[in-house]
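ok new one. same drill as before - structure tokens go in, u give me an amino acid for every spot. 361 of them this time. try not to just spam alanines like last time pls lmao
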């Protein structure tokens, strides 16, 4: 439905949750670009000494990325960017699901409110007819009171349905600012046949949240590599030139930090533990996602089959049932109690059909 598609896209694009995820994605891209830049900048040195002889020197020093830290940083930042991009897609998907769920909840709520209004009308008419029959001596006091209680119960159910409808509206309104319910698109209940799934695991692996978690593992792997490279010292090479009185001075300095007091091994241990944690999270997420996928497929097929049966047979049968019950009670072929029990069963079945529609969605 183009109207539904355009509505969902418009809401998703302007939602603050998605915009925040998009900002996080832009920040991760900027960090990725920054990580690819050189790690060390050159240093300019100048020295002047005035004594018996005047001495001055000018030099330039550069720390060398001897252990490949720049490459490791770039790899870690790229993996993090991929994870944030997958999380952005997951945020968009989750918001679209929330919106569609809210629309279906509202649509079913409207139908349930209509059914509750019909129940209230039927029970009110029945109570008035029962009162007239009681006045004529055709019903006893117990049956008349039973009809009155049924009418009051229908009023309570109508109020409950109206409250549920208001809550369903809220579920959509908090995603669609300044949007009126009469402008919301309808959701078609004729859902497609479940496609044949030859490789459920592949479908699960393509889920945005699974992709994001897997990218977090890649990022953790890259961080382990970076921490290991950071344990290797990088030398600094300096070139100097100057004059001492009438003599020309030229010098070369090579300095290497000594990681004696701190070898940074615990940073590596922490990175390895975080990588193991990320992998366990992925494994757990995959198991739960696969179970949800299989369960949802089965429940969808069952609900869809039941819904088709309801559309083909159930609705017409209930329509005939309601009319027949009314005639039988008025003809005295049904007691008031039996009539109410069967009428409520008819209305409850229609309400259950709405639950089935919501379950299918």
């Amino acid at each position: 439905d183009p109207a539904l598609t355009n509505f969902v896209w418009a809401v998703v694009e302007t939602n603050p949750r998605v915009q925040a995820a998009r900002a996080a994605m832009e920040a991760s891209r900027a960090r990725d670009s920054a990580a690819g830049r050189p790690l060390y900048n050159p240093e300019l040195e100048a020295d002047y000494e005035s004594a018996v002889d005047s001495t001055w020197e000018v030099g330039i020093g550069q720390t060398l990325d001897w252990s490949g830290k720049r490459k490791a940083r770039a790899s870690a930042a790229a993996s993090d960017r991929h994870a944030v991009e997958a999380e952005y897609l997951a945020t968009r998907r989750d918001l679209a699901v929330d919106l569609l769920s809210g629309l279906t909840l509202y649509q079913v709520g409207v139908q349930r409110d209509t059914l509750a209004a019909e129940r209230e009308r039927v029970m009110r008419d029945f109570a008035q007819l029962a009162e007239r029959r009681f006045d004529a001596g055709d019903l006893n006091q117990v049956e008349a009171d039973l009809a009155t209680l049924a009418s009051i119960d229908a009023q309570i159910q109508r109020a409950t349905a109206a409250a549920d409808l208001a809550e369903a509206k809220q579920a959509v309104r908090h995603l669609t600012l300044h949007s009126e319910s009469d402008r919301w698109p309808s959701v078609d209940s004729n859902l497609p046949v479940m496609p044949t799934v030859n490789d459920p695991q592949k479908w699960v692996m393509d889920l945005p949240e699974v992709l994001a978690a897997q990218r977090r593992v890649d990022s953790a792997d890259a961080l382990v590599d970076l921490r290991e490279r950071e344990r290797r010292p990088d030398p600094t090479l300096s070139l100097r030139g100057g004059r001492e009185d009438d003599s020309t001075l030229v010098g070369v300095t090579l300095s290497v930090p000594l990681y004696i007091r701190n070898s940074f091994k615990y940073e590596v241990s922490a990175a390895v533990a975080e990588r193991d944690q990320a992998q366990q999270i992925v494994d757990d997420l995959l198991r739960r996602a696969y179970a949800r996928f299989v369960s949802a497929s089965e429940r969808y097929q069952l609900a869809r089959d039941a819904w088709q049966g309801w559309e083909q047979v159930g609705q017409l049968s209930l329509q005939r049932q309601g009319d027949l019950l009314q005639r039988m009670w008025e003809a005295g072929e049904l007691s008031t109690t039996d009539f109410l029990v069967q009428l409520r069963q008819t209305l409850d079945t229609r309400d259950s059909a709405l639950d089935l529609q919501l379950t299918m969605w």
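DSSP finds eight helices and four strands in the chain. and btw Residues 131 and 144 are 6 Å apart (CA to CA).
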